[in-house]
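Pipeline run #58 for the internal structure catalog. This entry was flagged by the ingest filter as a single-chain record with no existing model, so it goes straight to prediction. Upstream metadata was stripped on purpose; only the residue string is passed forward. Reviewer on rotation: M.T. Logging verbosity set to normal.
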Amino acid sequence: MNFGLSDEFDDRFRKMMAEARRMEDRALRALKEFEHVEGCMVPLSEFRPTPDGYTITVDMPGVRKEEVSLLFKGDSIVITAPCKSAVEMKKREREVQYFIELSLPRGIDEKSIKASMKGGLLRIDMKKTKGGYQLKVE
């Protein structure tokens, strides 16, 4: 792939992309090892900004809302639930669960956090705090 800027730039860019792929591979291997050793699965999730706050969606097929545990820790939120597979394993050595801890940006209004669950999709909505004030320059 040649970007037409210079051979040196192209070479550096290719090396950077190769390193990024190696880092991604290492991270995925570490995640799979965590899932195997801890009996936890990290669910697919998405964090989206909205005009007045943020929305988090977490995909946990087969989980009912009564089974979800949410722990707000100020700068993060921890989500756990039992993992239900469409194809049940015949013999499990231990219970498998979903586990994810997501970092949150500053300025979340704790009282505004609302969670809902529908069809195995957890949705968490939160608003930004309305902090700040105008300063007068003297």
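catalog note: The radius of gyration is 21 Å.
catalog note: Helices lie at 7-38.
status: ready for reviewer M.T.
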